[in-house]
Design a protein that fits this description.
eight-stranded mixed beta sheet, 15% strand, Rossmann fold, alpha/beta, two-stranded antiparallel ribbon
C-alpha cells in the first residue's frame, strides 16, 4: 500500500451544516484526515466521521491485516489486530470515500506526503485529527532507566511530527476559510503521576512529550483563531483499545481494568468536528467521555 493509493467507497454526496467549513458553512462531503487509524481511538474516529458525513483520509504504519505488532513496553512484539485495509473497508461501508495512507511519525516525509496526497485527491482538509502517538518502548520507564535517546524519540514523534502535520495541512485549511484541528491528548500531559511506574504511574518520556503536544492547541487558537482555525484538545479518558485488551489477555488481566470503548471518545471527536457551538471551545481541553455521555452521543458503557 502506497501513499498514492486511490480513494474508494461511496460516490454519494451529502450536505453538512456547521459554522466552520468555508465561508458559507455548507459543503459537500467535508474532508477529514485522521492519524494513527489502524485500530483504537484513531480507527473509531474514522468510522465516527464517516458516519457523520465526511470523506476520510487516514494514516497508520500497518497496511494489511495480520501485519500489526505491539511494540510497546508491555506488548513484546505480539500480534495485534487492525490495519489500514480493515479501517478502509469499515469506513466505506458507512458511505464514505476513503483514502488509506501509510505513514510513520518518525518519518516526516511520509507525514507530509499523506497531507499532500489528501489535498491532491480532495483539494481540502476541513478537519485534522492528531491521534497517532509513538507506541514503541520507553513510555513506561522510570527516570533513572530512561536513556536520553528514548526521550528524543518520544519528542520527535509526539511533538515535532505533530507540528509537521499541522504546518502541512494549514495552507489548505486557510485557503478554504478555516478548519478544525483536534488533538488526542492524555491525562499524563496535564497531571502528575500518583505513583511510580509499575505501581499505577507512567514514564517521564511519554508524559513530557504529551505535555509538549498539549500546548499546541492553545497556540493555534491564539495565532490563527481569527482566520477560522479551531484547535481543541480531547482527553479521551480511560479507553480499552484493541492493544490494551490483547495485553490484558496475555498477562492474565482480562476484565481487571475495564474502560470505555474507543467509539465513545470518537463520538465526541465527531461532534467537535461538526457542531457550530464547538467553536467556543477553541484552544481548550475537553473530556471526551464526559461530552459523549452528557450530549447523548454514545450509549452508556458503564
Amino acid at each position: 500500500m502506497n501513499n498514492d493509493i486511490t480513494a474508494s467507497g461511496s460516490t454519494g454526496t451529502t450536505k453538512t451544516e456547521n459554522g466552520l467549513f468555508g465561508q458559507g458553512g455548507v459543503v459537500d462531503r467535508p474532508i477529514a484526515l485522521v492519524t494513527g487509524a489502524s485500530r483504537g481511538i484513531g480507527k473509531a474516529c474514522v468510522l465516527a466521521l464517516a458516519g457523520a458525513g465526511f470523506d476520510v483520509a487516514f494514516t497508520a504504519r500497518t497496511a494489511t491485516e495480520g501485519e500489526g505488532r505491539d511494540d510497546s513496553d508491555a506488548g513484546g512484539g505480539a500480534p495485534v489486530e487492525g490495519s489500514l485495509e480493515r479501517t478502509a473497508t469499515e469506513a466505506a461501508a458507512r458511505g464514505a470515500l476513503v483514502l488509506p495512507l501509510v505513514a510513520d511519525l518518525t518519518d516526516f516525509g511520509s507525514l507530509e506526503a499523506a497531507v499532500a496526497t489528501t489535498v491532491e485527491q480532495w483539494q481540502r482538509i476541513d478537519v485534522l485529527v492528531l491521534n497517532a502517538v509513538h507506541t514503541g518502548a520507553g513510555s513506561m520507564l522510570r527516570i533513572t532507566e530512561t536513556p536520553v535517546d528514548v526521550l528524543q524519540t518520544k519528542l520527535t514523534a509526539n511533538v515535532a511530527a505533530q507540528l509537521v502535520l499541522v504546518r502541512a495541512a494549514l495552507p489548505a485549511m486557510l485557503a478554504a476559510g478555516g478548519g478544525r484541528i483536534i488533538g488526542i491528548t492524555s491525562y499524563a500531559a496535564t497531571h502528575e503521576p500518583t505513583a511510580p511506574v509499575g505501581q499505577g504511574g507512567w514514564g517521564y518520556a511519554y508524559a513530557a512529550s504529551k505535555a509538549a503536544f498539549h500546548r499546541l492547541a492553545g497556540h493555534l487558537a491564539v495565532e490563527l483563531g481569527d482566520q477560522g482555525v479551531v484547535a481543541i484538545n480531547v482527553d479521551p479518558g480511560h479507553v480499552m483499545t484493541e492493544r490494551m485488551a490483547a495485553n490484558a489477555r496475555r498477562l492474565g488481566l482480562e476484565g481487571r481494568y475495564e474502560g470505555a470503548p474507543p467509539s465513545a471518545p470518537a463520538a465526541a471527536v465527531a461532534w467537535l468536528a461538526t457542531a457550530a457551538e464547538a467553536v467556543e471551545l477553541n484552544g481548550l481541553t475537553v473530556n471526551g467521555l464526559k461530552i459523549a455521555l452528557e450530549r447523548g452521543l454514545h450509549p452508556d458503557w458503564r
